[in-house]
Amino acid sequence: MMEQTKTKTKSGCLISSSSSMLEDIDEEVKQLLPTLPKAMDGTIFELCLYRGFWFPTRLVQLNGVLSFQRCFQAHDEDIIVSSMPKCGTTWLKALIFSIINRTRYTPSNTPLLTTNPHNLIPFLEFHLFNSKEIPDLSTIPSPRLFSSHLPHPALPESVKQSTCLIVYICRNPFDSAVSLWHHYCEIQTDFEMSMEDFFEVYFKGLSWDGPYWDHVLGYWKESLEKPNKVLFLKYEDLKEDIVSCLKRIAEFIGYPFSQEEDGNGVIEEIAKLCSLRKLKNLEVNKNGMHLSTSPNKAFFRKGEVGEWVDYLSPSKKEHLVKVMEEKLRGSGLSFRLSI
């Protein structure tokens, strides 16, 4: 039998430590890492290719990924926010948290005023499971809210086999690349890769949890095959018509807005509360760190659509648009590059 103990974290959450299982995972990672292809994406992150996708070995070391895959038991009522990095994840977390808790909190006492959205909806693979203990998540009230950057094929079987919901947000690859480049500039003072070079690397698929195309298309296909399980959202659509998108999200996760709420401006109130301007100006998001790797302010920049045009020459733009069209050909998925 596995040796198990339970302790409490500072937040009061019970943690179950299965030392034997963790030791097995650690040993597997030690044997696995040397065999995996490695590459640099031009940043502080060395990436390793695991099951067709690139993961940052320095940050995750695959322990968190494997622990999440092996140990997480999804509940049917769970809601998982999924995305590639820098595609609107922080915004979507704030929106979903506010939709679900709209009768519990008001805009004047919501935890969003004092807590970064990433702490309200924590990442599974490099927050909850990337530690020396296996978290006991069974005591969290339903619906449990989690997030992940993992591609769909890498999700635990318990997630795929359960009826838990996945809300996926993507962003056009041009603005995604710009946002990620600026994020790296925030967390690495000596980051020197030019924007155009970074675009080339990103579009070739060498990025955290990339290739971008495989990540996006994986969830896109799942949303077509299982529309009751996976909701596929585009960042550009949220920017253009946030009210309609909030109604769609609320309906999908089982918290639809009533006619009375609609008439009383509740939807617009949530949109305002979770706006970039509001979140960016909160003291908690101006200071502090997320998981000791990124300043909170790095998650709140411009949030614009079409900013990428300022960074590319006409010839480079034409080349990368062709790359995008080829990668998405036949999928039915397309992106607007401006609004």
Count of beta strands = 12
- Helix-strand category: alpha/beta
**Poorly predicted residue ranges:** 1-17
Whole-number mean pLDDT? 87
Comma- or semicolon-separated keywords:
4-stranded parallel sheet, 17 helices, 43% helix, 339 residues, disordered N terminus, alpha/beta, 14% strand
Detailed description of the structure:
By secondary structure, the chain is α/β, with parallel strands linked by helices. It has helices at 19-32, 57-60, 63-71, 89-100, 117-120, 124-128, 157-161, 173-187, 195-203, 212-225, 235-240, 242-252, 259-263, 266-273, 276-280, 283-286, 314-328, and strands spanning 4-8, 14-18, 38-40, 46-50, 53-56, 79-83, 134-135, 145-148, 165-170, 230-234, 289-290, 294-295. Strands 8-6-9-10 form a 4-stranded parallel beta sheet, with helices on both faces. A 3-stranded antiparallel beta sheet has the order 1-2-7.
What's this entry about, in short?
The chain has helices at 19-32, 57-60, 63-71, 89-100, 117-120, 124-128, 157-161, 173-187, 195-203, 212-225, 235-240, 242-252, 259-263, 266-273, 276-280, 283-286, 314-328; strands at residues 4-8, 14-18, 38-40, 46-50, 53-56, 79-83, 134-135, 145-148, 165-170, 230-234, 289-290, 294-295. The chain has 339 residues and is an alpha/beta fold.
SSE topology:
Elements: E1 4-8, E2 14-18, H1 19-32, E3 38-40, E4 46-50, E5 53-56, H2 57-60, H3 63-71, E6 79-83, H4 89-100, H5 117-120, H6 124-128, E7 134-135, E8 145-148, H7 157-161, E9 165-170, H8 173-187, H9 195-203, H10 212-225, E10 230-234, H11 235-240, H12 242-252, H13 259-263, H14 266-273, H15 276-280, H16 283-286, E11 289-290, E12 294-295, H17 314-328
Parallel strand pairs: 6-8, 6-9, 9-10
Antiparallel strand pairs: 1-2, 2-7, 3-4, 4-5, 11-12
Helix pairs in contact: 8-9, 9-17
